[in-house]
Design goal:
single chain; alpha+beta
Length: 312
Amino acid sequence: MEADPPNDQPKKQLDVLIPQEVKQIDFYGDELLVALVDGVPYVAVRPIVGFLKIDWSAQYRRIQDDEILEEEQRMVRMTDKSNKQRDMLSLPLELLPGWIFTVTTKRLKNPAPETVVKLKRYRRECFKVLWHAFGSREQLTTPAASASKAVLQHTRNLGLAVAQMAEEQLAMQEHIDTVSGEVERAHSRLDLAAEVVVKFNRRLTAVERRVMPYECISPEQAGDIKLAVQRLGELLTRKAARASSDQPLPNYYQGIFVEIYNRTGAPRYELIHLEDYQGVMSFLEDWYNAAQAKPGDTVAQLEPPQSPNTNT
């Protein structure tokens, strides 16, 4: 059985994991190997290094020098499309960006133009492609995994998704606050600023709206969802505050994030499938209208609409 460590340094002793499934994922013509081990997808590192035509020893040392990557690395028995097996150093899919974002063109000596282009593509799109091919919609749970482990995995994924969506929502709110302050300080130039923003958004949309192999929503559509979440969260919080001014306010944003994750399986807005976009927008609009139409302000009337059946 062939193994993977560099020739110029000793191999760290790692037990070889035998996966329940191995997939060969096509990434712009490069065959990436992803294996499922007890519900966790692992990505073989060396094929990526080979496709990028960079030094394997340097990348191996970089992984060993990072305390998180070094702790989470595994040797996994991979099978390529020619049915050849090889024990390969692999990282959990969720940690792949932690390594690949350390590989920059500044670290390479006289990189070829095609290497620069390919490296940017890997840094920008590789995780998304692998996530939608192997990691999304709770595909990580296998029959071999126990029921309790499956529940824990879902709870962990849900927590990560809520945290990520909250970070994106906070970033959007900070941006709104910043823009609002600037508008107030430059009120006399508001009309001109609005015209510039409209033209800029029109050009940005034209550039960014494109068909991607994994069919995520566009940045503009992700912005639509963020604004809808902001509007709904403010309404629910405002009504709850009027109903019980002496009680702590519920965290309605967390409830909204959980509903979006349960309906889409996406841990970030930008990873929502294109086919789920209209459903998410309709769901948020229905919730907003239902909460707004209620004559009273009790917390019970601020529950989300009935969720559709999901796999989560």
